[in-house]
Each structure stands twice: as C-alpha cells, then as structure tokens.
Amino acid sequence: MNAAATAAAIRAGQLRATEVTEAALADIAARNVRTNAFTEVTAARARAEAAAVDAARAAGRDPGPLAGVPYAVKNLFDLEGVTTLAGAKIERGRPAAARDAFLVQRLRAAGAVCLGALNMDEYAFGFTTENAHDGDCRNPHDPARVAGGSSGGPAVAVADGLVPLTLGSDTNGSIRVPASLCGIFGLKPTYGRLSRQGSYPFVTSLDHLGPFARDVTDLALAYDALQGFDPQDPAQQQRPAEPVAPLLGAGLEGLRIAVADDHFARNGHPEALAAVAVLARALGTTRRVTIPEAARARAAAFLITMAEGGNLHLPDLRARAEDFDPATRDRFLAGALLPATWLVQAQRLRAAYRAVVLAVFETVDVILAPATPFVAPPIGQAMTEIDGRILPIRPNLGVYTQPISCIGLPVLAVPLADPGTAGTPHDLPIGVQLIAAPWREDVLFRVATALERAGICGAPPVPA
C-alpha cells in the first residue's frame, strides 16, 4: 500500500497507525538483512508516534495528510535522541541529537511515523553506498550490485517496499543516482526550497534535501508536507509554499519539452540514452537543446565539492585520519590542498554557467537527460568502458547529475516502468532526469504524472 492509500485508510478509520507501524517494523526485521538499508531502527519512537496518530483521530482531531505513513531518513538527518552518524566512524562518539531536523519535524506534524535511519556513503561523498563502517547497501533488484549513493539506503528502503517514503540529500546527484539505479522516483528541489537545518552538511553551497517514493502521488504528498520557511537555514528563500499535489492532473498542454544533447547525448552506455529516447517518444517531443559548458561545469562542481568538503573535515583529517574510509579521506585531503585560485575560477565558471543555462529555460520548460550513465554495476567493480575509454565507475555515476547540481535547478528522477524498452542489461532499472528552471517543481510533477499515467514511468515491482 502506498503512502496516499495508507493515510486515507487511517484517516477513515479502516486501519490503525499502530497496526501499520508494527507490520513495517516486522518487515524490516525480516528483510533488511538482504539489503542493509537501515542502520538504526527507532522502534520505540515509531510506536509512540503511531499511538499519537490513533489518539488524535479517536479524539476527532485531524491526524494529518500523512497520518500513520511509515518513513525513514538518511542517517545524516538529526533524530532526537539518536547520534547522527553521516555514515562515518568518527561521528559515533558524538552526543545524540537534541532535536529533530526541520524536515523531520515537518513530516511528524503531517502525521508520518519515523522508523529509523538509513545507510549512506561516508559523509555523503560517494555514488555507490559501499560503506566501510556500516557495510555495503545492496540493490534490491540484484543484491550483488550497488544501490547508488550517497542516498543508497533511502532509495533501497523505498524500492524494496520497507517504507513508502524516505528523505535523502543530493549534492552532486545523491538522490537522482540511487533513484535511477533502484527504479524509483526521487526529487532534488530547487536550491533553497527546503530547509537543511538539522542535517549533517557536505558542501553547503551545493547541498539539497528531498524525498523518495514509488509513485508520483506519494512524492508530491511528501514534498508538499516538507515545504515551509525556516530562518535557521540561510540558503532558504522566504517564499510561500507552492503545493504540487493539486496540479498532478493538469496535463502537458502549453509545456515546452526538449531533450538535452551534446554532453548528455554521450558519456554513457546505450541504455542510458535509450531511456531518454523512450520518454521523448512518449511525450511526442523531437526538440533538442544544448546546455553549454556542461563538462566544464561538472569539473567546477568537482573542485568546489573537494574544497568545501576538505575544509569542513580538516580538523578530523589532522587528528583522526585513520578513522576515515581511505577513499573518502584521500578525496578530502586532495580538496584541502587545492590552490585557492582553482576554487575562485570554479566559482566564476559556475556563475557564468548558471546565467547561460537560465537563458536556455527562456525557450523551454522541461529538459530530459539521462540520470545515470549505466545500470547498477556490481559491488566492488572499479572500472567500466564508456565511449571507448576505460573510466572509474564511482565518479562517473554523476556525469549527468553534477552539471545540474552546481546551479541549484530542480530535478525529478523518474524510472522507466519497463526497463526492457531501453534494452537495459538483465532488465535492471534505469531512470531519466526531468529538469526545470528554479522554483518550477510544478512542471516537473505535471510531466512525471503524465508519464506515469501513460505507463511509461513507474517503479518496478518490489523484488520477491
């Protein structure tokens, strides 16, 4: 049962939130061992929140639009009374969080029930969720393959049907990459749309937070519940909430949709490009647009990520280098040693690139682009061939997402309902990015809804 149906049944008195919670906790206990999605199960909290939902309904009070819906969060979100690990060994000795993150507070106010924290790449610096401390997070469609990252646990928990909603973060693609590899919907909202207060930072000038779900309706319900101004996040702009759920049936009339070419028409395996073509045919669009300088923008995003990340973790790099995952440590060290002039040049390019891309959106409303360059690779595989070159897998999983992240555009990753239409190896899932201008999440949800209703996009069945 999806989140919308669960909440409706609880609100109507056909189900009790406590029953839903107990069933979800039992399912996690039985099946999490297969994928290692959860790193912390907050059973006592979940039972208390579910009881509060049932009590509110019994007293005639509104239990909220997400009444009794189970959810979980990437373990970089603060949960009151739980130590925020951010996937790292170093954080395990820190005090427990004194209060919930802002977005967790929003979901609780909407009646949702928090079941725990989810696996991720250490300090969110990765695209595979192969975690040296908590163990690898495994793709539910083939446990020998990666989940994607760094929000691998949130994507897997939804794809495997453990919970209908999760929260993740996206700095360079960390929502969109695992959404694509696990075959679910993931939203990276406009930079500044949702508060990041109470989440462990990675790259403050690039970090976004957003939801995962198995269908567009659930994603919209979660996104609408999460909106709200929070002055404690200086990046958040004081804008009124703009609900998208009422717009899901608005259709495509008047929308200008195009396919990204150049950088986004190469750099991947055939299935990645074929997935975009499937969506373009379904939408009846033959228009193509160029996002200029995408490759250089991606390079700038790399430099900014390394520099800000290295600076943030410099004290621990000096004092506790041996406690990092060696791969993460070396990337942070490289960032801490970057020449200042490189960072200045990267920020200049980023600003110029943003202006050029915003000009593209004067003539188009939604751009289609691949989400990942290939389907989920096997855990431990280091290299692959792309366009005749042997390249490392981990950084290149973000080849299509990083150029979009660094300028804060909203993106909705949508999964092909039938991956076989794109010729994916072993029928593994793959997704496509729907990209819009800042603050235009509404058009993304309109396109995603049309594709879902046409049977083109949708989450594959929960694996047996």
From TrEMBL:
Residues 19-444 form the Amidase domain. InterPro entries: Amidase, Amidase_dom, Carboxybiuret_hydro_AtzE. Transmembrane segments: none annotated. Pfam families: Amidase. NCBIfam families: amido_AtzE (TIGR02715), PRK09201.1 (NF006631). This is AtzE family amidohydrolase. It comes from Falsiroseomonas tokyonensis. The lineage of its organism: Bacteria, Pseudomonadati, Pseudomonadota, Alphaproteobacteria, Acetobacterales.
